[in-house]
Amino acid sequence: MHRLSKRSVSSLLSLRGSTAAARSASYSPALTVDRAEHKDATPGRFYSAGSSGGRAPPCWSPRRFPAGFGLRCESTAAASDSGSAASEKYEYQAEVSRLMDLIVNSLYSNKEVFLRELISNASDALDKLRFLSVTQPELLKDAAVDFDIRIQADKDNGIITITDTGIGMTRQELVDCLGTIAQSGTAKFLKALKDSKDSGSDSNLIGQFGVGFYSAFLVSEKVEVSTKSPKSDKQYVWEGEANSSSYSIREETDPEKLIPRGTRLTLYLKNDEKGFAHPERIQKLVKNYSQFVSFPIYTWQEKGHTKEVEVDEDPAEAKKDGEETGEKKKKTKKVIEKYWDWDLTNETQPIWLRNPKEVSTEEYNEFYRNTFNEYLDPLASSHFTTEGEVEFRSILYVPAVTPMGKDDIANPKTKNIRLYVKRVFISDDFDGELFPRYLSFVKGVVDSNDLPLNVSREILQESRIVRIMKKRLVRKAFDMILGISLSENREDYEKFWENYGKYLKLGCIEDRENHKRIAPLLRFFSSQSEDVMISLDEYVDNMKQDQKHIYYVAADSVTSARNAPFLEKLLEKDLEVLFLVDPIDEVAIQNLKSFKEKDFVDISKEDLDIGEKDEEKEKVLKQEFGQTCEWIKKRLGDKVASVQISNRLSSSPCVLVSGKFGWSANMERLMKAQTVGDTASLDFMRGRRVFEINPDHPIIRNLNDAFQNSPNDEDALRAIDLLYDTALVSSGFTPENPAELGGKIYEMMGVALSGKWSAATQYDPTGHQHTSTGPFQTPGTVEVAEVVEPGEAGGQK
Fold it and tell me: What is the superkingdom listed in this entry's lineage (predicted)?
């Protein structure tokens, strides 16, 4: 069994792996046990089954511990007179084969990251050589060797070879770096730089945990590391196998396998992982994870070029062609000749590391298309560097269109933000850590040198740094969108709003902290702009001098909103009203509450304030129609909460408005359409409705006369019912019994139209028949019409 150094085990325990790793690690080491339950309690120490140990004391059952563990208890002398037991300190021990299994199978959830980890190690080796060669030029004695990384895949035998021309390793460095788990050579190198006068000279080194190399065993059953350091004249080979607790080191003696400098990793893949040995897949993984590594990465690829070759032809045809043309020409055809050669895979450069002033718009657009596989240029881009407590570089883009025309705004995992750490791709699978859901359409790259990642580099851990980064990214995204809205070309923002308007409205609901940034970006139709959307800033600029509120009405279309009875008085006063025609609009505005100290007011709800009031006139109307309102309320019963005199109507006789804190007619319609709607909450929220009447309308005045003269007249009471049902429809509500409403309308039509166009037949004393011509009859024609009596017309309701 191999023992780990105290420093190595401490580093390992500080890593955040999976739950299984933590649970198993609690059993694997030899633990120091210090119990003082009895006066003569003795400390115990656990060893693996391979260790020599004595019997377990009776009070400690070996069945508590996993198989493969023995137990040895050592007694210590009790302290003299104090009664306290002396204690001894021990170092943790680890079962290496079990530890390796945990590292390989628990730290990484995605097997394909093995190539990213190994390329990162190769990049670090090249960086170290470049840095050390400044003060030690003899390390570059073989100047003909370029700084690069080459990857060759043998799909027939399932072998992948990764070669770099970096610093390489000596025999002792192989033992220290590959033989000691969780000891990072890069981290050790950076610490040495920090302690020296040359600290801060290089920040491109990637490794920090010391376990990235072992990710090779995710897909390999055997790994061979052949390395040559410029500090040594000999080349050494390290060999290790999966599920083994030992490794071997030997000197390379085969002349054909000698390399001038650097390291060559040979991975012998497992049978079920040989798909990784396809050259096309290797190239794809390199482009995904290591596209922006600062050294060139070459992959061994099959290529082809076109060439012309002679072909044999039929002698008879050749003779015939020769006679026609007078000369004989040889027939050729074009064929593709295939060959294998090195192909530069990481051609795209990380433009976010350059000065924004030096990058052209064409370069930004080309980078966007290549990185996100887009064919259209973005609407806008933002390139910035953040310094201070959190340092990172980023380029953000607003795509021209949403994917497939429309995207699911409820899905935060869009893979639109690619996170890099020191130019190495980490992940694009985030659940709101870097951008809120309503900004999930923004695409871009974020590159930082010191993000809090877990060991596998797959999870961005929650921390204060991440929250600060998210806040700054959101701020930059809003600045970019604001730039589009302020563009001289109005069509640019119209195009943006058509694609992403719903996202910003969702932001009104989910992000209260950024209301001030979202509100200026919103666009709506209005009563004074039915064809072109306006901003809230434009609305406020057009407000009347004494106007205190921003008025709006929600409907399913601009036509419905324009014809709603709630607008009548406001239009007379030339007060602009916003039309909220998108289902999410009303909820968004209700969450926004106000804009520039102007409250949003729904004109379809009770207690509408539209400015100046004539208290004397209101008092007179209340005296005249007060009892009529009570009479109407008594007839309607629980259908309405109250009947009031309206201040919002001019041409309509009545309107049905919602309670101040209940749902509007539009919201009630939307909630009914929900597949999982709660009927209990629906009944509660729609409970309060106010019936408002227009005292200047002839129908209301006739009803007032009916109340004064004959309050129990059936025709008057039926007129109230019909008036309520009509107001229900015109106000945007859905009648509970449409058939009953139809019957009432037919009845009233029958009364109104009875005998209007029928021919009245008259007889004179002489017995001759005379007819009067109706409005649609021509002289000389006689029409036989049936006279519909009122009682018959209203027979079916």
Answer: Eukaryota
